[in-house]
């Protein structure tokens, strides 16, 4: 059973040794190879992110390929209705991805700030 005083379990980016940091502040020091490193921020969410192939499916459905055997009906993008359907599918996917995009940008900014310090 893991004890709180052991700290966080880490993996060394150089030698891949897994160890507990014993609650020590950054930088973390690898007990095997001696490398000091700043751990990457962990992106955690209450809900797991699922792979979504919606834009791929919409793009393929708007292509000249026959995909009915895969369960996709073609989007007739050359018509007004087809173009509207395609645009709506892309906008819906973009709206669903905004939370992930924001979290990735925040994590990147934090990593850049930590590396500059």
Question: Which word captures the global form?
Answer: elongated
> How many separate domains make up the residues?
2
Mean pLDDT: 79
Q: How many strands in all?
A: 4
Query: Proportion of β residues?
Result: 5-15%
Write down the Rg.
23 Å
User: If helices are DSSP runs of H or I spanning 4 or more residues, what is the number of helices?
Assistant: 3
- Helical coverage, percent range: 25-40%
Major sheet description = 2 strands, antiparallel
- Please list the strands of the largest sheet in the order they lie side by side: 1-2
Through-space gap between termini: 35 Å
SSE series = EEEEHHH
Structural class given helices, strands, pairing?
A: mainly alpha
Low-confidence stretches: none
Structure write-up:
It is a single chain. The chain has helices at 54-61, 80-96, 98-116, and strands at 9-11, 18-20, 28-29, 36-37. It is mostly helical and 117 residues long. The strands form two sheets. A two-stranded antiparallel sheet has the order 1-2. Strands 3-4 form a two-stranded antiparallel sheet. Helix 1 (54-61) runs antiparallel to helix 2. It is elongated and about 65 Å long. The protein starts with 8 loop residues before the first strand and ends with a helix. The model has no long low-confidence stretch (mean pLDDT 79).
């Amino acid at each position: 059973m893991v004890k709180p005083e052991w700290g966080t379990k880490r993996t060394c980016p150089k030698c891949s040794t897994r160890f507990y940091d014993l609650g020590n502040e950054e930088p973390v020091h690898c007990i095997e190879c001696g490398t000091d490193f700043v751990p990457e921020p962990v992106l955690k969410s209450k809900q797991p992110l699922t792979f979504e192939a919606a834009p791929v499916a919409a793009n393929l459905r708007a292509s000249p390929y026959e995909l009915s055997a895969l369960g996709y009906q073609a989007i007739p993008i050359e018509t007004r209705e087809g173009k509207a359907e395609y645009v709506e599918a892309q906008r819906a996917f973009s709206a669903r991805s905004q939370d992930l995009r924001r979290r990735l940008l925040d994590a990147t900014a934090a990593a850049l700030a930590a590396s500059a310090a």
